[in-house]
Amino acid sequence: MTTMRYLEALTNARSIEELWDMHCPKMASYGFDRLIYGFTRYRTENSLGNPEDFVVLSNHSPAYTDVFFNERLYFHAPMTQWAIQNEGACSWRVLAERVRLNELTEEERKVIAFNLSQKVHAGYTISFKSLSQRNKGAIALTAAPDISQDQIDAMWEKHGQDIIVMNNVAHLKILTLPYSGLGRPLTKRQIEALEWVGDGKTTQDIAMLMGLTPATVEKHLRLAREALSVETSAQAVLKAAFRNQMFVFDGQTTSLP
After folding, report:
1. What is the pLDDT of residues 68-105, one digit of tens each?
2. 3-state helix, strand, coil in the chain (%, to 5)
3. Which domains does the chain have, with CATH numbers?
């Protein structure tokens, strides 16, 4: 498949799962057999936000991801810190230079030691351009275990621009697709109730529009707040909108007014 046809397929993906199932094999064709994509809308000066609010996609084995995420190694990973502070693509060759200059912290050394134990030793990181200081997205492209950094750098010389464009398009497309994160998915009734809240309707209005009692409407809104880990319905509307869980066509009739 040519790059242009692949980009067309990416832009037509109807779900994150469909996109990811296309993107992983495509990156593997360039030698990157393991990927981690991450995005947050809630970054602050000292934090990437609540992990439950992250969009995280990976085809690494559970033996890797369970430790990397559950033990928060990602926060101390040198290339994560590079991605937070930069935009564009970076070869992991910079890690060898930092090791040579003895610039790594103890936490960073632990991450590198774990990566090496999992045959994560060569690759590239792409940090996507952000329009807000609170947004940050990046993807770590890990080379296959039998590929050296020299080999992957040589490949990047020939195909790096295409790879950057494909990942930029994948990132932008992911931001338009529904994502439920680590919490419970919203039900159709919860989504409909939130959509009416977003339109400025009161509980009484929503009850009439949905053919329910006010108590049942409030139950749907309460469960939606709990699923999204927020305190108010207004916050739930905002968070569901960020995750593209409202006003999204799913191939069936929607409750768009």
Report:
1. 988 889 889 999 999 998 999 999 999 999 988 999 99
2. 55, 10, 35
3. 3-174 (3.30.450.80), 188-242 (1.10.10.10)
